[in-house]
Amino acid sequence: MILTGGNRNDVTQVEPLLDAVPNVRGRRGRPRRRPRTVYADRAYDHDKYRRRLRARGIGTRIARRGQPHGSGLGTVRWVVERTIAWYHGMRRLRIRWERRDDIHEAFLGLATCIICYRHVQRFC
Predict the structure, then answer these.
(1) What is the pLDDT of residues 67-106, one digit of tens each?
(2) Where are the domains of the chain?
(3) 89 phi, psi to nearest 5 deg
(4) Where does residue 94 rank: exposed (0-12), middle (13-18), buried (19+ CB within 10 A)?
């Protein structure tokens, strides 16, 4: 996980985030080392980063600025926004008070376990 200050621009952290993605498991054979496509909102609309992702062999689905909606990104992004809202439901994670990033990451892991438990509990 990459943890940066709240005043950093998100688009500058795209490449370190992709470097931190673990191997993608699934089918037999050599595991994939990068995602096929990156979905992002208009804040990431910059040709420089599109070129860098394309050079890595990663497709981009980034909404363009000044263009009307209709790219279909909302259906995919809604899952991410919903998950972030679940994390913000944990009061300790809404605002980061811890100075040490390992403690903050531990609370994120604990929140993930609680969220998963709540969803598995529905099936039982």
Answers:
(1) 766 556 566 667 777 888 888 888 877 777 778 888 888 8
(2) 1-72
(3) -70, -25
(4) exposed
Which residue blocks in the chain are alpha helix, DSSP H?
14-20, 47-55, 73-88, 91-94, 101-123
Q: Facing residues of 11 across strands?
A: none
Q: Which two tokens stand for residue 22?
A: 């673990």
- Asked if 33 contacts 23 with a C-beta cutoff of 8 angstroms, the reply is yes
The answer to whether 44 touches 62, Cβ cutoff 8 Å, is yes
Which residue do the tokens 């952290």 mark? 13
DSSP bridge partners of 56: none
Mean pLDDT in the chain? 79
| pLDDT at 116 (0 to 100) | 92
Cα–Cα distances (Å) from 77 to 3, 9, 17, 124, in that order, read 21, 19, 17, 28
- Helix, strand, coil % in the chain, rounded to nearest 5: 55, 10, 40
Residue 73 identity (one-letter amino acid): L
